[in-house]
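FAQ: What does a multi-protein file look like?

Like this. Sequence, then tokens, then the next protein.
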Amino acid sequence: MAAEGDGWAGMGWDWTDADDIRRRLAAGADPDRWSGGRPLHRAAVFGSPEAVAELARRVADVDALENGVTALWEAVMSRRPENARALAAAGADPWRLSLGGWSPGRLSLAGPTPELFPVREGATLTDTERAAAQEAHRLTTALGEFDYDGTGLACVAGIDAAEAVRRLLATPVDDELIDELLEDPYGYDMDESLQIIGVTSVPGGCVVTQPWGYAPQMPGVLARLSAGTLCYGFYANPKSGNQGSIARHGTIEGSDLHPGGEPDENDTPAEVLASYLYQHNAVAYACAFTGLRPAGRRAVTGPPDVWVELPRRDYWSH
């Protein structure tokens, strides 16, 4: 909730009511200050075009920064094209450089509304960026929308399901046991269910999955899978969100990552583009990171090529 002093008391996630915003501004609400951040940035993501336009004509600087980005960047990143148009009409600069050297205008060329702004000379996508955008469209369409809360996943480049099973020294699971587990995975003994994973070959590599737990992302699993190659693992924690890890050549290179989340200030141009292309889609992000090209979501949701049981060992210290 906002403090009483800035005129935005009671404002939360909904900034769509332009009349309410207009009344608040007329009563002295500060167009540049709100306890949750800048009002214009908030409206760019959670508001209506009318609300954005009302705020944009009142602020001191329509391109003011919050957390290193402009309100127009937020609108483009959040795929709110009408809000982006309202900001551009109010004077916001689509070609102002931001995270990873991208501008909001150039980033929009990789998304679903490439016609959002008149393209400035020299601001077109490279062949590599265009190919990345095309594959993102194909991959997200192939996977579709589905609920993967509670799922553990490891995407492994360059090896098939049989090689993944060999590296993990895993053994096939009896069909009757799998049927019983799938009927009520959370009613099953956790010490037993966490040992069981599914493995599926896909173009570019393989996917290791566990629809009810985090086992594929355990460091010892990722280290073994990534010998001589690259692996991206994550656990879609229902309580705290997606938790990602990168393993390369048997070593954990990154942890506590947020696949499908917002880009960070120090991200490379490729990382910023990936965050835009795969926002709110951790599964697609993990596949793209490792170059996997599944034709559908069976590798994640099942049934996998094979269900196997991990040998008992300490997977947290590799």
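And here is the next protein:
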Amino acid sequence: MARVDPKAVLAGRVPGRPPIGLMTGLAVTSACALVALGLYAWSGGAAGFAVGVIMAVLPVPLLVSLVLLLDRLEPEPWRDLVFAFMWGAGVAVLGALILNTYGYEYLTQPRFGTEQGHFLTATVGAPVIEESFKGAVLFGFLWFRRSEIDNLTDGIIYAAMVALGFAMMENIAYYMKAFEAGGGHQLEAVFILRSVLAPFGHPLFTSMTGLGVAYAATGRRTVGRWLAPIGGLLAAMVLHGLWNGSTAFGYRGLLVVYLFDLGILAGLVGVVIWERRQTVRLIGTYLPRYGGTGLVSPLDVQMLGRLPARKDARRWARRLGGSAAARDMANYQLAATEVALLHQRADRGLADQGRFEQRQRALLELMRDALERFRRDAPPPRRPQVPPWTHGGPTAFRPPPPPMFEPPRPYGTSPSR
């Protein structure tokens, strides 16, 4: 049996075809990141550069893990997430570095002086330039990878990834300046502010663009759908400008804007939780109609609609067949979730019949392949183990045993093979 490529099916690409566009994009973004690092190293000392890189990279794994924790029900393709992160760390940083520098030296500083020029660059120039560069990749996803954006959560996740890449590179410059200014308490204060108290500043700002792009990708065909990305980008610029400008009003101004941003962050988490419940409802609405295919039972639908039950199912699969069976279970769960989201897109008029049928066949084939692979990787043990979510009821993961005696055949027919 030909092996189905789960990653290709879930990502909606042709199996076996190398993603040339993605590879080219990663090469370009990596080159831009190297150029930006070179400019940082050239502008400061080796010791400050090394300290800046270490302190900037140190919290990134934790921050990325927290972002991806919000995307457990229907994870985005890792290739797209890596590209978004590298765009922020490469193209966005290098473009903003060049334009912010030239904007200050040739526009704001000559006209308004050093102090006021810095303030205008930080509160107006930098938010417009930086959010435009970060948002460009999100607009690119809307144009080229629209089918990967299924809900508002996806827009938040992609926005957070590009912003974390940008913040990591930007923090290098801040830590270098603090180190070269004397280090010590000043370096500690900058680290606490940027990596402990407000590590989600850039992700919060850019999430406004992500929300607008996601609404445009998933909303019905109305005027608001076309205006949403522009509105989201403007909201990102305003929030960014408020944060940068709050420092001019001392700690009180910074505290007011900080609490305001915390409220928005809580709202974004609330959106993710609400959409997770909506996706569970979609699974319960659309998956039962596939009961006749033998790919899903009513009890399997209940398992797919609860995150703890999905986790228990993967653990059960791992006990029976190790990592291979757990991977089969995970592929089955992801494909089933994508089927429900595909139906939602069709109901909103976002998927034509040809595209719907093609995608539906691929996902159902992945579910069937995952079941067959699971039965191979996790053969029934001597003492049958009941799947934890079934309470002994029927499930697609344990097909009924063959009959003990073959039923009688009409005279003159040969046995079935």
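Q: Is there any per-entry metadata?
A: Some entries carry free-text notes. For the entry above: DSSP finds 14 helices and no strands in the chain.
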